[in-house]
Amino acid sequence: MAYASGEQKPFTVNEFKGKKKAGIPISMITCYDYAFACIAEQSNMDTLLVGDSLGNVIAGYKTTIPVTMDQMVYHGTIVRRGAPSKFLIVDMPFMSYHVSVEDSVRNAGRIMKETEANAVKLEGGREFKHTVEAITTASIPLVGHLGLTPQSVHKLGGYSVQGREDDKRKRLLEDALILEEAGACAIVLEMVSASLAGEISKSLSIPTIGIGAGGGCDGQVLVINDMLGMNTGFTPKFAKKFTELFPVIKTALNEYDAAVKDHSFPGPENTFK
Ligand code: KIV
Fold it and tell me: I want to staple 219 with a disulfide (CB 3.0 to 4.6 A). Which of 92, 98, 168, 209 is the partner?
């Protein structure tokens, strides 16, 4: 892979473990298009995730379930074009790893070949042990995803904090250990109590990346549209807005609209003689 001149040393799969060992938190952000990828490329973010949350924030679906392999490959490809040096993870969408192990390896391989990602991510625990083993045996780095797994929203019955009861807490911890044993290089923990996420993080040698899982994780991930304040609807408690772009963009659109209508745009400086 080519790296543009003057860029920081790229983050590799080895750095995941290294950062955890050194106690250095890992930063991750979702990214879905070329324009934001170009900005992220020049930022200090360690890793980019082409999440299937693109189904919600880009396509406007209610869930991530309709997202297809072709859509993930398309978005993965354009993000890689804008961010050639970042450690790039691409989500495996619903039904791309549920049918058979063979099908899963083929789909993970397609993502790696066509998007030039560094790793794939899939949701679930022990039920995908053999799938994770097969994908990682094919030399494809894999990130697990436990806790709230949005592709299972209909089974879970909603988007709520996971692992609060003792038996579910025990199961989540076991699942994390099983994923590590099966070859995962990191695990995203979504909406689990901070105490459980902390316990899981201490029990693993691979890093945990939390979203709504407290500060005891080895890294944090946020959905870029949430942290940039690009929507006016419901924002989950954990999704801190680091800026508020929605009103900024709306104001710019209204100023442009007014300038067109009062003939102040285009001015002489925007016009060819
Ligand atoms: O799809 C996604 O954006 C994710 C993150 C929320 C971790 O899986």
Answer: 209
**Which structural domain range is residue 61 located in?**
13-244
Domain CATH for 201: 3.20.20.60
User: pLDDT tens for residues 159-199?
Assistant: 888 888 889 999 999 999 999 999 999 999 999 999 999 99
Active site (catalytic) residues: 190
CB 29 near ligand 1, within 6 Å: no
264 in a structural domain:
no
Q: How many domains does the chain have?
A: 1
Asked, for residue 267, whether it belongs to a domain, the answer is no
Within a domain: residue 64?
Answer: yes
CA distance 63 to 156: 13
Cβ contacts of 204 within 8 Å, gap of 6 or more: 176, 177, 180, 187
Q: Which residue is closest in CA terms to ligand 1's atom 2?
A: 51
Q: What is the distance in A from the centroid of ligand 1 to the CA of 189?
A: 10
